[in-house]
Amino acid sequence: MAKRGLYANIHAKRKRGEKMRKKGAKGAPSEKDFKKAAKTAKKRKAKKKS
């Protein structure tokens, strides 16, 4: 089974009602983690024009 991504974990935590860790706190995602996640993010589909 593939490991869940950074944004999946963030959304799950918000759904549970938990607060996010402050920037720079131990265990909080770093800028490097967000840049890595952006590389593997799914591209949004373009909306069809009517």
At a glance:
This protein has 50 residues and is mainly alpha-helical. The chain has 2 helices and no strands. Helices cover 42% and strands 0% of the residues.
Verbal overview:
With 50 residues, this protein is mainly α. The chain has helices at residues 6-16, 31-40. It is extended and about 45 Å long. The termini are far apart.
Topology:
Blueprint: H1 6-16, H2 31-40
Please bin the fraction of helical residues. 40-55%
SS field, number of helical segments: 2
Q: Structural class, from secondary structure content?
A: mainly alpha
Q: Kindly state the mean pLDDT as a whole number?
A: 83
Number of strands: 0
Strand content: under 5%
Distance between the termini: 40 Å
Parts with pLDDT < 50 across at least 5 consecutive residues: none
Biggest sheet character: none
Order of secondary-structure elements: HH
Shape: extended
Key terms for this structure?
50 residues, mainly alpha, 42% helix, extended
